[in-house]
Amino acid sequence: MALKATNPTTTDSWKKLQSHFKSVKSKHLKDLFKSDAERANDLTIEWEDFYVDFSKNRITKETLDLLFELANELNLKDAISKYFKGDIINVTEGRAVLHTALRAPNDKTVLVDGINVIPKVHNVKQKIKAFTDSVVNGIHKGFTGKTITDVVNIGIGGSDLGPAMVVDSLQFYKNHLNTHFVSNVDGDHYNEIIKRLNPETTLLVIVSKTFTTQETLSNANSIRTWFLETQPKEAVSKHFVAVSTNIESVKDFGIDEDNIFPMKDWVGGRFSLWSAVGLSISLALGYKNFESLLDGAYKMDEHFRTSDFKDNIPVTSALLTIWYNNFFNAESEAIIPYTQYLNQFATYLQQGIMESNGKSVDRDGNKISYQTGTIIWGEPGTNSQHAFFQLIHQGTKLIPTDFIGYVESLHGNKEHHDKLMSNYFAQTEALMNGKTEAEVLSELQDQLLTEEAIKELLPFKVFDGNKPTTSLLIQKLTPESLGKLIAMYEHKIFVQGIIWNVFSYDQFGVELGKQLAKSILKELNEGVLTSNHDASTQRLLTFYKKNC
Ligand code: F6P
C-alpha cells in the first residue's frame, strides 16, 4: 500500500510547533542548560558504541515532543513498516526500496511480488565472497598468469561515491590490493589513473546499475581500448567484471555472464554500496570486513525499526533537520567528522541526501510551498576549522552542524588524538557559548590596550554563540561502526522524505541536463551548431568550437 500523502504544514502538530517556535527561537542554549540540570542527560541517546548528544540543539523537551507528535500525525511508524516490508514506496518508479534487505540475515523474509528476495541476496553475497577470496589470495590470476595487484572501479554517482568513500574511510583495514576509482567522463581522470597501471595485473570492475550511463560507458570503452592495445581479446574475461541490473547490455559489452554480479532494481543507486556495487569494497578490505559493514548497517536498521521515537537516533536527527529547515529557515547543514579517514563522507552524503530530498512536488503531485531538502556540506576537522568555521561562528547564517568523533584513534597516537578531540569538544562549546561583550572587554583589558583601542575592537570580537550542534561520539572507526553511521543517515533521509511528503527515491532532476548534453554532443560531433540555444549558450559553444 502506498504512503499516505499529507501536507505537513496542515497538521495540528505543525501549527503547535509554529507557536512553540515563537517561544524558543530567541532562547540561548546557555540559558537552556542553566535552567535544566538534566538537559545533557535527557537529550542524549546511548546505543551500542554510539553516544549521540542532541542537547546543544535549540530545542526543549517540548520541542521534541511536538516533533514526535508531528511524526505520529504523519504516520511515520506505518511508513517505516512499509519501507522494511518491501512495499512499493518508490511510487514514481514503481519499485520497492530495499537496501535494508541487502544486510538482513539469511533467516529473514522480505517479499517482493510475493517472492522472498533474501535467498538471492545471499547467493550474490556468496559470489562476492568467492571472487574476493580468489583475487585477494592470488588464485584468480591475470591472463598472462600474473597476480592481480590493482583494482579499478569504473562507475559514477552511487556506483562510485559509496564504494570510494568506504574504501577510503576504512583504508586502515585494507589489504595489499591497490584500489582506484574512475568516475568523471573527463578523459584526464581515467588517463591519470591508467598511466600508472599494468594491464596484466589490473582488474577492471565496471559498475552501473542501468549500464546506460554515459560517463561509465565512455570510461569503460576507453579503458577496454587501452587494455586491448597490449592484451588479446581472450584476456578480457580474466580482467573485466561488471555489476549491473542490465545483464544483456553487459554481455553486449563483451563481459561473460560468469563475470557479472547482478543487482536488483529495488536497490537505489545512492543506497547501493551494500549490494554487488560494494564489490570493490570487498576486494579492497576483504569479504569479512565487507560483511561487518553490512552487519553494522543491519544493527542500525533494527534500532531504527524497533526503537521508540524518543530513543531513536535517525528519527530524532531527522526531526531536528525539519525543525531548523522549516522553522528557523536554516538552509544548509554541515557534517564535520573529526577523523581524516572520513574525508569523503560529506561528499558521499551529498548524493544520498540532496538527490533524495531535493524535491519540490509532493506525493500527490502538487507544487510544494514549504522548504524541503537541505544543502549538505562539510570537511574533516580540524582542517575545516582553518577554512570555513569563521562563517559558522560569526556569519549571518544558521548552520546546524553534526560533529562526528571517535573515542579511540586507529594508530593509537594518544597525544595527537587528544589534541584532535580537544578541538572537537571545544568547537561545540564555542559555537554554543560564544563570547559576550563583558568577556571580550575583560580579555582586552588584560592585554593592557587603551580604552580607545578596546572600544574599536570590541564589536568584532564578540561571538553570539547559540549555534546548534549534535555530537556523535563513537567508540572506534571500524567496518561495523561505519555501517551503522551510514545507515543512520540513510534512515534520516527516509524520515525527512516522509515528513516533507516527497518521494525520496527517484531522481528525475538529473535527467534534463543529461538529455541536453546528448544533443549538444551530437552538434559538436557533427560540427553544426543549431540555433536552438539561448544567446549565451550559442556564444559559448561558438567560442569553444573555434578554439578547441
Ligand atoms: O546521477 C543520476 C544517477 O542515476 C544516480 O542516481 C546513480 O547513482 C548514477 O546516476 C549512476 O547510475 P548507474 O549506476 O546506472 O550508472
How large, in whole angstroms, is the Cα Rg?
A: 26 Å
The molecules bound to the chains, other than polymers, are: 6-O-phosphono-beta-D-fructofuranose
Which runs of at least 5 residues are low in confidence (pLDDT < 50)? none
How many domains in all? 3
CATH class type of the largest domain: Alpha Beta
Report the portion of residues in β strands.
Answer: 5-15%
Q: Walk across the major sheet and give the strand order.
A: 1-2-13-12-10-11
**What can be said about the biggest beta sheet?**
6 strands, mixed
The CATH H-level superfamily of the largest domain is: Glucose-6-phosphate isomerase like protein, domain 1
How many E-type strands? 13
Multimeric organization = single chain
Describe this structure in words.
- The protein has 548 residues and is an alpha/beta fold.
- The protein folds into three domains: 8-73 and 308-433 and 468-506, Rossmann fold; 99-291, Rossmann fold; 509-547.
- The chain contains 22 helices and 13 strands.
- It has helices at 12-24, 29-34, 39-42, 61-73, 76-85, 118-136, 161-169, 187-194, 214-228, 236-239, 247-253, 279-285, 287-306, 313-327, 345-357, 389-394, 414-433, 437-446, 451-461, 479-500, 511-526, 535-547, and strands at residues 44-47, 50-53, 111-112, 115-116, 150-154, 178-182, 202-207, 240-244, 260-262, 332-337, 375-377, 401-406, 469-474.
- The protein has a six-stranded mixed sheet with strand order 1-2-13-12-10-11, with helices on both faces. Strands 6-5-7-8-9 form a five-stranded parallel sheet, sandwiched between helices. A two-stranded antiparallel sheet has the order 3-4.
- Strand 5, helix 7 and strand 6 form a beta-alpha-beta unit.
- Helix 14 packs across helix 20 (479-500) and helix 18 (437-446) packs across helix 19.
- The longest helix is centred in the last third of the chain and has 22 residues, at 479-500.
- The radius of gyration is 26 Å and the shape is globular.
- 6-O-phosphono-beta-D-fructofuranose binds at residues 155-159, 208-210, 213, 216, 269-270, 355, 507, 510.
